[in-house]
Amino acid sequence: MKVVSAVRRRCKDCKIIRRKKKIYVKCDTYPRHKQRQGFCTWTPLACFTVPPKFPEQLQISTREMLVLDQLCSNLIR
Hints:
By secondary structure, the protein is of the alpha+beta class. The protein has one helix and four strands, in the order ββββα. The chain has a domain at 1-40. Helices cover 19% and strands 21% of the residues.
């Protein structure tokens, strides 16, 4: 089974199936066409984590954390 970010039908017999919030492709004719939509391996705030250069950058407010968390969750969808 291949794990890909965008699943596609590779032949006319491929079927797209949704189970437990994941999308699968199943093919009875060619079993090698099996696919599953990939998953995210990075944490939401890891994309915005920057090593601090100055002591002022160590402080981050709760509001900024919520905004960054919402931005990352929108990127996941």
